[in-house]
Specification:
The structure holds two protein chains of two kinds. Chain A is mainly β. Chain A contains no helices and eleven strands. Chain B is built from no helices and eleven strands. Classes of the chains: A mainly beta, B mainly beta. At the A-B interface, strand 4, strand 5 and strand 10 of A face strand 4, strand 5 and strand 10 of B.
């Protein structure tokens, strides 16, 4: 059973470009979480999605950031018009159910660098 | 109130010694307290977790001590080994959160000296 997969592992963008980060949850998991980690800091919650639904996006910046988890395919975190402050590691986690289990399994992350 | 405060920021321990990392919280709605281990360039991995109805949980060399009245919990790594060198995050989950989102501490960078 493959773990949470994220790609790309490293992404370099110039200011103003768009960044698309993909996350494939573990098999059988229908709940996806996105977290952001700035250098030397802990992870900060961004958004929680179930298939075709955004459940909680309280940690997402109001502008330029969006997320989706379609019926088919991976979850996508999209950052439009990137700025240098968006440089961070973005982690995806998945779990099989909402409150039935506590464990979230993390992927290896995508390290975004904005030049 | 959603914060989890973690200390120390960094820690150096001799091989074979005991590593202790402390965390404190304010939100009494937190009902699940995991610890994550993260190696450079990797995602966090669940190490051990505890619920507030238990005062201690031990798994191998790793022990969580939980003090509900003080709203504090700590991770003890016994017989610390060089392979334990990593960043450790305490965390908590709010039972009333619709997202089951995890609130992370700021992390402790642990180095075990051979």
């Amino acid at each position: 059973n493959a773990g949470v997969m994220q790609n790309p592992r490293h992404l370099v963008r110039r200011r103003g470009q768009e960044a698309r980060l993909r996350c494939s949850p573990m098999k059988g998991h229908s709940h996806v979480y996105w977290y952001r980690q700035l250098p030397e800091e802990g992870l900060k919650f961004m958004v929680y999605l179930q298939k075709e639904n955004i459940i909680d996006e309280s940690g997402m910046p109001k502008e330029r950031f969006s997320a989706e988890f379609p019926k088919e395919g991976p979850s996508i975190l999209r950052i439009q018009q990137v700025v240098r402050g968006d440089s961070a590691a973005y982690f995806c986690a998945s779990s099989p159910r909402d409150r039935g289990t506590d464990t979230q399994y993390f992927g290896p992350g995508t390290r975004l660098t904005v030049l | 109130q959603q914060q989890v405060k973690q200390s120390p920021q960094s820690l150096i321990v001799q091989k074979g010694g005991i590593s202790i990392i402390n965390c404190a919280y304010e939100n009494t709605a937190f009902d699940y307290f995991p610890w994550y281990q993260q190696f450079p360039g990797k995602g966090p991995a669940l190490l051990i977790a505890i619920r507030p109805d238990v005062s201690e949980k031990k798994e191998g060399r790793f022990t969580i001590s939980f003090n509900k009245s003080a709203k504090q919990f700590s991770l003890h790594i016994m017989d610390s080994q060089p392979g334990d060198s990593a960043t450790y995050f305490c965390a908590a989950r709010d039972r009333y959160s619709s997202a089951s989102k995890i609130i992370f501490g700021s992390g402790t960078r642990l180095s075990i000296r051979p």
